Amino acid sequence: MFSDNPTSMIKSPEQILDEWFEAFNIGDLEKLLSLYHEKAIHYSPRVAKLKPETKGYLQDKNALREWWEDRFQHLKGLH
Length: 79
What we know:
By secondary structure, the protein is mostly helical. 51% of the residues lie in helices and 5% in strands. The protein has a two-stranded antiparallel sheet with strand order 1-2. The longest helix is centred in the first third of the chain and has 14 residues, at 13-26.
């Protein structure tokens, strides 16, 4: 059932962070990506180091998908 109060469906930054870490730790790419807007811009010094052509910026959800698919393959021991 939906609430009459639209703010009741807004997640706090802490809730989003908890969900992000949970998705990352279990290697759930779809859950991780669900936390990003389609036009999200993500910056990471690690991205800048491994993909210098990006200057550290991933420009949308497709770029995030490519990045995290690759990272999950390299970070299998963390899951």
